[in-house]
Amino acid sequence: MGEHREQWSSKLGFILASAGAAIGLGAIWKFPYVTGTNGGGAFFLLFIAFTLLIGLPMLIAEFVIGRGSKKEAVTAYKKLAPNSGWTWIGKFGVLGCFLLLSFYSVVGGWVLTYTVLAVTGQIIGNTPDYGALFGMVTSTAWIGLIGLFAFLLINVLVLSLGIKNGIEKANKFLMPLLFVFFLILVARSLTLEGASEGVRFFLQPDFSKITSEGVLYALGQSFFALAVGFSCLVTYSSYLDKKESIPSAATSVVGMNLFVSLLAGLAIFPAIFALGFEPTEGPGLLFIVLPAVFAEMILGELFLALFLLLFLFATLTSSFSLLEIIISAFTESKKRSRKKVAGYTGLVVFLAGIPTILGFGLLSNVTFFGLPIFDATDFLVSNIMLPLGCLFIALFISFKMEKRLMEQEFLSGNGLAKGFFSLWIFLMKYIVPIVIIIVFINTLGIV
Q: How far apart are CA 333 and CA 330, in angstroms?
């Protein structure tokens, strides 16, 4: 049990680890392509509103549950609500993390493959058509399987040793470096001829382009980008020292996330319009546009390799948090070997990821509700399960968790007045669940 109750060495370490859990594929890979396929500026504005009004209170809720229980996700609900059905929230989170990992790790494999190609100088200069390269990487089964296996192997090796020392220390160095590289990329993208059209697309809202489905995507993206809804950050915050301020830490994580999303948009959309790509490209958007932008830079191959290495790190920190909730659920209460559980989990996720890989080739004609395997899994996780998980957690906070304990955790380590706690409770009790339910009903066409 000792290894599970170690603590973050500092508030900065916790914030960067939590930001690392959130700022991976959500902010860098997924945000540009869902924004591109859902109308640009209006979607971005909705995403910001949902992140601040719904995502931030949800992040605080997961932190409060985690530190208040000092347990990983499944055991946390058992401790706070013993002998009740509320414990299923933790189990729902474990299932959600597993499904999310089944397609997230496939994309992680793509990032790893592109990193290897860039480091060995096989992208810029050797590839006249970046779209064709992406198609080859995703549709060639053996490339996808090797990438998936290697990505999961890194996860299993790191998590079998425990993540606190390595990840906390690495985050302090690599996350700021990722910001610096993003700023370089933004500067180059904005100076491309014709970039202003992309800036307008991204920052000038046109609400006529928003559909009810687009609103659901914006809500789902706000949860996906912050990694809330599956109780991943319940586990992370269970290691947080009592003297640290939860609202302050959550606000820092949300601020960093929104900033990275802004940078991702400013790096990608001006380049899309300047270089003649389509913003509706889909999951391959980042992999097609990035090499094209770096090709326009001096030492582009080197910068692309360095950026992809940092992007790979951000992707790994997110997958670590997803895998950690599963591993913790099976090791903390049952005293099982962490290394064995990590190995078995990695193997099962690998097997679950195979249909997603084949969905770009052999199984490309297989669809669920009209969507290919990859898109169907993503839609189920991001737009159905994550909002449901957030709804369950909001109801737990509102009707089950002891108010005195919540207030104690919320106010501990900061000088905030009790009025802020009352505001947070109001948001969790009325705004968060009502907005989620309205968006759901509207999307399903019930009203």
A: 7
